[in-house]
Amino acid sequence: MKRSKLSQIFAGILVNAIYEMKNYPVVLISTVISPLSLLAVVTFVSRGALFGTAIEGGLIMNFFSSGIAMSSDLSHLKNDFKLQDMVVSSPASSRIYMGGMAIAEIVYSIPSIAILSVLAAIYVHPSLIQTAIVVIVLLIMFAMSAALGFMLSTISSDVVQSYAFTRLLSLLFTTLPPVYYPITYIPKVFQYFAYLSPTTYAAEITHAATGYLVVPNSLLIADWVILVSVSAIILFIAVKKTRWKEV
Questions:
Q1: What is the pLDDT of residues 94-107, one digit of tens each?
Q2: Which sequence spans correspond to the domains of the chain?
Q3: What is the model's pTM?
Q4: Which end of the chain has less Cβ packing within 10 Å, N or C?
């Protein structure tokens, strides 16, 4: 049974990552360019002062975008290739299917993650504890966005609609919020709007953990509580409420 589940997960990685990376390597360029382009802009505008936070922002954007990309990828496989119909009629569960596709998104993003990780090691110099905190935050963001992407894919009737969802959510969660720079750079009146995005809490935790932002312990605890709570709610909805066998 365990071997069967592993083979199902590996099949998802082959379908959603390896095949595309092997046959269409040009698509990897967009995966690398998106986080690095904003990194470059923020670094140039700040004259290098925000390079460290921009690297962390690039990682947050990468992991969130990887998860939300499941919306368009799964919609394509579901609507164009009818793959989900075959999975529904097979012994594979929705959790195994979602898990395999989620891991595939991480595999697909390995080049950009590797570049940003090397930059972080060279310029941020995080300790083991700091690295652990950042990794935990990134995994939470990925789990949340992957669950959100999976939900959207099951209700989307066309891949074009899914692409629209993907672009819109990436903009709302990784470009507009203070992910690449500390929230203190935003005027006080607009900070309240920034806190509507869970990525703001993720960025605030990582920026504080690596010394780029001074945050009171009470506020830092609140950041963790909100981030974990929002992620748990989205994951719960994805598991319990997502239309899976009715599509």
A1: 667 677 777 777 87
A2: 2-241
A3: 0.84
A4: N
